[in-house]
């Protein structure tokens, strides 16, 4: 069902902008920026969504924001980023826990040319599958499962899924818009029949996430970009119209079976995430644990501390004027979120 664009949120999730302070930027997407910051003395991640410039853009992004907030507030799981709250005035803001391990994409790139130990790769995959199992149990399709949307904890032992910006609630009768995630990881049925006009509807279901999971799992196993040598669009064309997939020849047989079953052309033939979790657990039980399960940290977090020279750090601490005196506390309180936002944009 399509959620109403109007913003409705239980008061326990409503962020008070006066207590929100924005620090350095740590990520950026097409329509939003993510900052490290503080909320009531808690270090958090702050996603600030740009409303758009035209009435059509504003309506679309407000609708997406309302859906994302609704889903985040309803679904809690150890492998989903912890939702802290949101507000839509003066700007649209989503506040979550801050994960210091960086994205899975960045982690894998920094690890190259080395790869993950198989047990670690499967352990990460299990975290992802459990997050997806939880989402699907709430009839939520993510639609944008890829390494950029998977974040590691500081100790690099746990993976959490973030960014519900393209997520949709699934119903039996619904046909969904052809708005999509990233082509290289997308299921062919999202775009394969014909090129859809903007806003046109087509059928698909939660099995699109199973396909994306297969591509991510292949990437975890090999630590290489899937469909190497192809652009995103070339990879999408090959997958959809030629049924091309990355090679599974160098993958252990039981693990290869999981990968290849998840990226089958027929969505109905792909396993659901409850089945995927069980297959991964079974595979883990067949391999002996190595001496060191988790790889040593390949890079340090850029966001552990906020040094004095960090952009936006002044928003997080009592600012000083030219004379070195602290500003009046009442002025500091009244500036709050708005003061920071004016500096961020």
From TrEMBL:
Residues 20-284 form the Protein kinase domain. It catalyses: L-threonyl-[protein] + ATP = O-phospho-L-threonyl-[protein] + ADP + H(+); L-seryl-[protein] + ATP = O-phospho-L-seryl-[protein] + ADP + H(+). It holds the Pfam family PK_Tyr_Ser-Thr. InterPro entries: Kinase-like_dom_sf, Prot_kinase_dom, Protein_kinase_ATP_BS, Ser-Thr/Tyr_kinase_cat_dom, Ser/Thr_kinase_AS, Ser_Thr_protein_kinase. CDD domains: STKc_MAP3K-like (cd13999). Mg(2+) binds at residues 149, 163. GO terms for biological process: signal transduction. PROSITE patterns: PROTEIN_KINASE_ATP (PS00107), PROTEIN_KINASE_DOM (PS50011), PROTEIN_KINASE_ST (PS00108). ATP binds at residue 47. The keyword Phosphoprotein does not apply. Keywords: ATP-binding, Kinase, Magnesium, Metal-binding, Nucleotide-binding, Serine/threonine-protein kinase, Transferase. One of its GO terms (cellular component) is cytoplasm. Coiled coil: none annotated. The active site is at 144 (proton acceptor). GO terms for molecular function: ATP binding; metal ion binding; protein serine/threonine kinase activity. Belongs to the protein kinase superfamily. This is Protein kinase domain-containing protein. It comes from Papaver atlanticum.
């Amino acid at each position: 069902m399509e959620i109403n664009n109007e913003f409705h949120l239980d008061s326990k999730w409503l962020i008070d902008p006066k207590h929100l302070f924005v620090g350095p930027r740590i990520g950026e997407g097409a329509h939003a920026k993510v900052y490290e910051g503080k909320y009531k003395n808690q270090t958090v991640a702050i996603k600030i969504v740009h409303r758009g410039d035209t009435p059509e853009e504003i309506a679309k992004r407000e609708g997406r924001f309302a859906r994302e907030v609704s889903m985040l507030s309803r679904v809690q799981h150890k492998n989903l980023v912890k939702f802290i709250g949101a507000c839509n005035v003066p700007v649209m803001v989503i506040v979550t826990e801050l994960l210091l391990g960086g994205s899975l994409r960045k982690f894998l790139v920094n690890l190259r040319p080395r790869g993950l130990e198989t047990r670690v790769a499967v352990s990460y995959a299990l975290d992802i599958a459990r997050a997806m199992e939880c989402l699907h149990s709430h009839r939520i399709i993510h639609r944008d499962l890829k390494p950029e949307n998977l974040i590691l904890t500081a100790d690099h032992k746990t993976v959490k899924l973030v960014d519900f910006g393209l997520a949709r609630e699934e119903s039996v009768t619904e046909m969904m818009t052809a708005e999509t995630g990233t082509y290289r990881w997308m299921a062919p049925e999202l775009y394969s029949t014909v090129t859809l006009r903007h806003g046109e509807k087509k059928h698909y279901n939660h099995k699109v996430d199973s396909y994306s999971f297969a591509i991510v799992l292949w990437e975890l196993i090999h630590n290489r970009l899937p469909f190497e040598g192809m652009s995103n669009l070339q990879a999408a064309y090959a997958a959809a119209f030629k049924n091309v997939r990355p090679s599974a020849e160098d993958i252990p047989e039981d693990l290869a079976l999981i990968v290849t079953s998840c990226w089958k052309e027929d969505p109905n033939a792909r396993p659901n995430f409850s089945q995927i979790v069980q297959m991964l657990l079974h595979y883990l039980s067949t391999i002996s644990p190595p001496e060191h399960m988790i790889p040593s940290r390949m890079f340090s977090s850029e966001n552990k501390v906020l040094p004095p020279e960090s952009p936006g750090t002044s928003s997080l601490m009592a600012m000083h004027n030219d004379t070195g005196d602290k500003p009046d506390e009442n002025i500091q309180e009244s500036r709050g979120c708005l003061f920071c936002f004016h500096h961020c944009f």
